[in-house]
């Protein structure tokens, strides 16, 4: 049975950015087992919607956990004791963790669009008057950090972490990038706002610590060229770039391709 | 994967209404929806979401009404391979296994 607690737990787990698999027993020699649901996490911990399915704890770790690690949604069949079991394993990925460093005026529309796209949005700044929940009521987390250094030293990072640097001065970008570049884990996106001059200054300073780094993977100047001027326009330019990276797309106008196809005529 | 239809299903249960949930759990070949697609079916035949439309969907709705009645979950295979052209223009050519359960 689809029980309420299990869906609530699933939702909370996704909100906490924990990847979760929802397992449905879709077939079982014992018909009463069919329809039971179980939540499974990467570390093998489980939550059973009904105590009846607890006898399958070990079997689920053996058969479903590997699917989860391969990030697959799939139906599998296996034998457990005398029973033939079919499970539908549905993977719920953790949402992208979008970290915006610098709570200035570009941050406001960027954070809004980030939420519209269902990202888990964190706004971080070292100034208490800027890092307030009143200014960012819709985001998931507002962090007033001691320094950008300590924040980027400790924040959990995976390929599903996207970092956008909108800080108030290039020395804060340098501090943040020094931490990000020296970490073992690599974020899926690093973007940094700034003029060509500021960017050149940042890279010059970073080169002392990272002589072999090309910095090619850092998106800076940030955004796609749509002539953005206002904070709102800039936010669209930046978020379009982030979607381009996330969806591994070209970022070109779709019509470009269609125009050349249209010339061929309809066949 | 979106949690939307599951939350919707919970809301229906909380209101004490009867309905069924259909989930695409396996596919072979070319199919209109992929594994994980969901549809909620109400006793009057109304639906929310889609598992691909057309004749296949109508068959699933019929099965789901039966599941609401009997309260016994079932598997239903939508076969889009027989006849390349359905009357309604479905030209997919694969099979989809649907798990249907009462909410």
UniProtKB/TrEMBL annotation, chain A:
Cited InterPro entries: MoCofactor_Util/Proc, XdhC_Rossmann_dom
Domain annotation XdhC Rossmann: ranges: 99-242
Signal peptide, first to last residue: none
UniProt-recorded name of the protein: Xanthine dehydrogenase accessory factor
Organism: Evansella vedderi
UniProtKB/TrEMBL annotation, chain B:
Domain XdhC- CoxI span(s) in chain numbering: 13-73
Taxonomy, superkingdom: Bacteria
Pfam families assigned: XdhC_CoxI (PF02625)
Stored InterPro entries: MoCofactor_Util/Proc, XdhC_CoxI
Listed name of the protein: Xanthine/CO dehydrogenase XdhC/CoxF family maturation factor
Taxonomic source organism: Evansella vedderi
């Amino acid at each position: 049975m689809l029980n309420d607690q299990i869906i609530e737990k699933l939702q909370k787990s996704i909100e906490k950015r924990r990847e979760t698999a929802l397992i449905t027993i879709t077939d079982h020699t014992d018909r009463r087992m069919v329809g039971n649901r179980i939540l499974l996490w990467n570390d093998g911990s489980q939550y059973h919607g009904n105590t009846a399915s607890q006898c399958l704890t070990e079997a689920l770790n053996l058969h479903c956990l590997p699917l989860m690690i391969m990030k697959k949604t799939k139906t599998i069949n296996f034998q457990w004791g005398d029973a033939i079991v079919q499970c539908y394993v549905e993977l719920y990925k953790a949402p992208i963790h979008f970290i915006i460093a610098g709570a200035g005026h570009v941050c406001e529309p960027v954070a809004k669009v980030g939420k519209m796209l269902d990202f888990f949005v964190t706004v971080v700044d070292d100034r208490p008057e800027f890092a307030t929940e009143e200014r960012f009521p819709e985001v998931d987390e507002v962090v007033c950090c001691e320094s950008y250094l300590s924040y980027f030293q400790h924040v959990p990072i995976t390929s599903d972490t996207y970092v956008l640097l909108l800080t108030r001065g290039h020395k804060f970008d340098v501090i943040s990038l020094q931490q990000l570049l020296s970490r073992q884990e690599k974020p899926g996106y690093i973007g940094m706002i700034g003029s060509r001059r500021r960017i050149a200054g940042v890279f010059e300073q970073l080169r002392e610590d990272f002589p072999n780094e090309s910095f090619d993977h850092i998106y800076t100047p940030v955004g796609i060229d749509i002539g953005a001027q206002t904070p709102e326009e800039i936010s669209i330019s930046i978020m379009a770039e982030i979607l381009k990276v996330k969806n591994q797309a070209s970022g070109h106008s779709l019509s470009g391709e269609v125009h050349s196809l249209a010339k061929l005529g309809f066949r | 994967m979106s949690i939307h239809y599951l939350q919707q299903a919970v809301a229906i249960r909380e209101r004490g209404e009867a309905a069924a949930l259909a989930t695409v759990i396996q596919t072979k070949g070319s199919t209109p929806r992929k594994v994980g697609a969901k549809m909620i079916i109400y006793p009057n035949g109304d639906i929310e979401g889609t598992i691909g439309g057309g004749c296949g969907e109508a068959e699933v709705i019929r099965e789901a009404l039966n599941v609401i009645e009997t309260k016994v979950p079932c598997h239903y295979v939508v076969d889009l391979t027989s006849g390349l052209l359905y009357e309604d223009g479905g030209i997919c050519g694969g099979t989809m296994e649907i798990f249907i359960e009462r909410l």
